[in-house]
Design a protein that fits this description.
30% strand, Molybdenum Cofactor Biosythetic Enzyme, Chain A, Molybdopterin molybdenumtransferase, alpha+beta, Molybdopterin biosynthesis moeA protein, domain 3, binds magnesium ion, Molybdopterin biosynthesis moea protein, domain 2, 420 residues, 6 helices, binds molybdate ion, elongated
């Protein structure tokens, strides 16, 4: 097979993960704003602060099915000397009371209904006894009811004018409920980036193809597609490019017109057919980095062309996954205007020793759990860069520092939490 035009491999300068992230950040811009209907707002990022246009609740609301009363009318009420009040009105939800409650009267009211102005408490149905007297309905109350009982005052939850949701907030179920409450049928959200995904490698088969000797199915593209979706991006599956440098170059450059940025996997190391290296050799954009002090994924490469990123992730699935988490995901979030772009880092006890010697900091696929009130993390198992099976089992990346002989069980260690 013909070799890629990769005889003169170019020099690599190793940068730390944080430095690589900093270089990316310098080119990171939010994409802009669009309007979506509330039903399509889930998972999107708010592009503006949302202020309450009204109080919540905006009327005095009953918390129980019962009777709206003046609390003062129950003064001295006891089983021995109950207070009797005449029922003057029935107030279902959605109804505006028409009759003023007096010290001698009560209005039957349902949960969520508007409490008449003069009433300052609601007594539960079960705490009253109803009777008919001379064609009138009366209730007897055997207990004093304090003012404010079972009554939600205007603005109890939210005051008109309050900032209820801040710009940059990701819209989940609770945010959606608030937007609906305040009548925001359409919301301004940050645009989602479209990301073209290429796999590279002549060994790659389409997922539907039968396996043949020496070939494998292209799993990275689909993994990246899922990761991009999780981060709120719009993935564009562009298929696999065979190991032909010229073809890779034209396809990748072409994709910049269809997407906000491009992610590739494979072909970034020092091999004869590592065609992304050739692409970056002919690159007339800015090279951000081409080697990172990390395992897996040390050959991860990134550049910018006309302010559009090209992330060339490693082909090894474990390294592709980690490269996405550390470099691509923050860009997808940042383009959507999210300020919290990086995975939360926590300190935890290592549940199982990790004894590999590390030339570079290592991001080990791990599982977190709580035992006796303490947070533990432990490696999920096979952790080689080439291993795919353990990706699904991990909810964190354990950061094993460079140097030394690994980390012992029980030692405190940092981990990036991958969920949430
Ligand atoms: N002599 C050296 N060899 C290697 C070095 C090195 O420094 N010197 N680095 C190793 C490291 S570290 C990594 S990580 C890998 C990086 O490999 P590439 O990014 O160049 O990826 P490929 O060579 O294209 O493929 C590697 C591996 O991954 C499989 N692969 C590729 N694409 C996919 C895909 N879409 N879905 C599933 N699997 C994929 C591919 O078949 C290979 O098995 O290089 C080391 N080598
Ligand atoms: O960068 Mo490669 O893992 O790190 O195998
Ligand atoms: Mg390679």
């Amino acid at each position: 097979m013909e070799k890629g035009a990769s005889v003169n491999r170019f020099r690599r300068n190793t940068v730390q993960v944080e430095e690589a992230q900093r270089r990316i950040e310098q080119h990171l811009r939010p994409l802009g704003v669009e309007q979506v209907s509330l039903e399509n707002a889930y998972g999107r990022t708010l592009a503006e602060d949302v202020f309450a246009p009204s109080h919540m609740p905006h009327f005095r609301r009953s918390g129980m099915d019962g009777f709206a009363i003046m609390s003062s009318s129950t003064k001295g009420a006891s089983p021995e000397s109950p207070v009797c009040l005449e029922v003057i009105e029935h107030i279902p939800c959605g109804f505006v009371p028409t009759k003023a409650v007096s010290p001698k009267t009560a209005s039957r009211i349902m949960t969520g209904a508007m409490v008449p102005e003069q009433a300052d408490a609601v007594i539960m149905l079960e705490m009253t006894e109803e009777s008919e007297k001379e064609g009138k309905t009366c209730i007897s109350i055997r207990k004093e009811i304090p003012a404010g009982k079972n009554l939600t005052s205007i603005g109890d939850e939210i005051t008109q004018g309050d900032c209820v949701l801040q710009k940059g907030t990701k819209i989940g179920a609770g945010e959606t409920a608030l937007l609906a409450i305040f009548g925001f049928h359409h919301v301004h959200v940050c645009k989602r980036p479209t990301i073209a995904i290429f796999a590279t490698g002549s060994e790659l088969l389409p997922v539907e193809a039968p396996l043949t000797q020496g070939k494998i199915r292209n799993s990275n593209s689909y993994m990246l597609q899922a990761l991009i979706r999780e981060a709120g991006g719009i993935p564009l599956l562009m298929g696999a490019i065979p190991d032909e440098a010229a073809k890779a170059q034209s396809l990748v450059l072409e994709a910049f017109s269809q997407a906000d940025f491009v992610v590739t996997s494979g072909g970034v190391s020092v091999g004869d057919y590592d065609i992304l290296v050739d692409l970056f050799q002919n690159w007339d954009g800015e090279m951000l980095f081409n080697k990172v002090a990390m395992r897996p994924g040390s050959p991860t490469t990134a550049g910018v062309w006309n302010e559009q990123f090209l992330f060339a992730l490693s082909g090894n699935p474990g390294a592709c996954f980690v490269g996405f988490e550390l470099f691509v995901r923050p860009v997808i979030l940042g383009m959507q205007g999210q300020s919290q772009r990086y995975r939360q880092e926590c300190t935890a006890f290592l549940g199982k020793e990790f004894s590999k010697v590390n030339a570079y900091p290592r991001y080990v696929r791990g599982k977190s759990y709580v035992s006796e009130g303490k947070l533990f993390v432990e490696p999920v198992g096979m952790d080689q860069s080439s291993v795919t099976v353990s990706i699904k089992d991990s909810d964190c990346l354990i950061k094993i520092p460079a140097g030394g002989k690994g980390v012992q069980q029980g030692e405190l260690i940092s981990a990036l939490l991958l969920k949430g």
